[in-house]
Design brief:
Layout (H helix, E strand, L loop, with lengths): L8 H33 L8 H34 L1
Helix pairs in contact: 1-2
Length: about 80
């Protein structure tokens, strides 16, 4: 008599929804910091150097990377219980 390793799928979905909600709440804390970084780097100026342009692109993409991280984490939690 082996144990069921899948567990209760509803609890896994609930945990993944909680992870997703906390991640999306954290996005609201990242937005003002990104705006501050863009202002400090003077990204709106047309006379910035190439290195500063690269830093501005990196600052801009942080929010997208964070959202992808949260989505992959929630999908990973769900598929972990479904595949084992």
């Amino acid at each position: 008599m082996g144990m069921n390793k899948k567990g209760n799928i509803y609890s896994v979905i609930l945990i993944s929804v909680i992870i997703f909600m906390v991640g999306m709440i954290m996005v609201n804390f990242l937005k003002p910091e990104i705006t501050t970084a863009r202002t400090d780097l003077n990204c709106a100026s047309s006379t910035i150097t190439d290195g500063t342009k690269l830093m501005c692109l990196n600052v801009d993409i942080v929010l997208v990377y964070f959202i992808i991280l949260v989505l992959s984490l929630t999908i990973g939690v769900i598929t972990d219980k479904l595949l084992i």
